[in-house]
Specification:
Blueprint: H1 2-18, H2 22-44, H3 50-61, H4 74-120
């Protein structure tokens, strides 16, 4: 549990740092737009509750796909095919950027520690 909280804290710090970078802002906007568009589509076309539609959008784009929901209409199936191909790339780009920000920060902290150590010697 402690390692989860530390990892979550690092991720949140990376996201907060990322809000200052234009590339991160674009990826965040695309991620939110993709999830909202999927949620709207599935709630209207597939008649899912909004929470279920958001859940389906997230599980689909994260490639988890529990199988508890699936599109019932042909239009929903075609949309899901396109949604997966477009959305998975966006989500991977967003997750990669968060990881990049977190690891860069960790490397900077390590360099500072080493610099302090060498300054004291």
């Amino acid at each position: 549990m402690i390692s989860f909280l530390i990892t979550f804290q690092r991720m949140m710090r990376a996201i907060l740092r990322g809000l200052k970078e234009p590339e991160f802002q674009v990826l965040l906007t695309l991620t939110i737009f993709t999830l909202i568009s999927g949620t709207i589509f599935y709630s209207t076309v597939e008649n899912l509750r909004v929470l279920d539609a958001l859940y389906f959008s997230v599980t689909t784009l994260s490639t988890v796909g529990y199988g508890d929901f699936s599109p019932q209409t042909d239009f929903g199936k075609v949309f899901t095919i396109v949604y997966i191909f477009a959305g998975v790339g966006i989500i991977i780009g967003f997750a990669t950027k968060i990881f990049e920000l977190a690891s860069t920060h960790q490397m900077e902290l390590k360099k500072r520690k080493e610099q302090k150590k060498s300054d004291l010697e």
